[in-house]
Amino acid sequence: MNKVKIDKVVLNIGVGSPGERLDNAKKLLEIITGKKAVYTKAKERNPTFKIRPGLEIGVKVTLRGKEAEEILKRTFQAVKNTIKKDMFDKTGNLSIGIKEYIDFPGIKYMPEIGVMGFDVAVRLIKPGYRVSRRKRAPAKVGKRQRVTREEAIEFITKNFDVKVV
């Protein structure tokens, strides 16, 4: 019950405004993952950037299972199998920023999309963590069932042959 596993991997592009760039971001994520991307909406009002609640400003794709592992392997290749310790949070989640999509293996430059980067967020869990998210009788998760930063680093280095600096 203490074995760490990947719950999900989320690829995200925040554009900041609706329009052609947002559509290009959606097309890019669908090419990279082979899955349908969904729009993310603004939650707060920000008059400086002309953002209001409900305005579509980003795109994301959530992957689970084997697909998540495949994308994660390609992500680590894009960062040359080296990540910083600061990319892990205290609960064992991992976030990686890809500056340009052409760094991602298997993707070529597309002039209609232009230059664009994206974020990859990885959520690691242990079995039994569902107790906190279930609909009926949710409960707190014990300390032993939470993933720590050290456990997450060990899992990533062992399973994906990644060097953590």
Would you summarize the structure shown here?
This protein is of the alpha+beta class and 165 residues long.
Describe the structure.
The protein is an alpha+beta fold and 165 residues long. Helices cover 24% and strands 24% of the residues. The chain has one domain (5-164): Ribosomal protein L5 (50s Ribosomal Protein L5, Chain: A), CATH 3.30.1440. It has helices at residues 20-33, 66-78, 149-160; strands spanning 5-14, 38-41, 56-63, 82-83, 94-98, 118-125, 163-164. Strands 2-3-1-6-5 form a five-stranded antiparallel beta sheet, covered by helices on one side. Strands 4-7 form a two-stranded parallel ribbon. The mean pLDDT is 90.
- Coarse morphology: globular
As a percent range, the share of helical residues equals 10-25%
CATH superfamily: Ribosomal protein L5
Number of helices: 3
Low-pLDDT stretches: none
Q: What is the name of the CATH topology? A: 50s Ribosomal Protein L5, Chain: A
Question: Rounded to an integer, what's the Rg over CA atoms?
Answer: 17 Å
Number of self-contained structural domains? 1
Structural class: alpha+beta
- The portion of residues forming beta strands comes to 15-25%
Mean pLDDT over the full residue set: 90
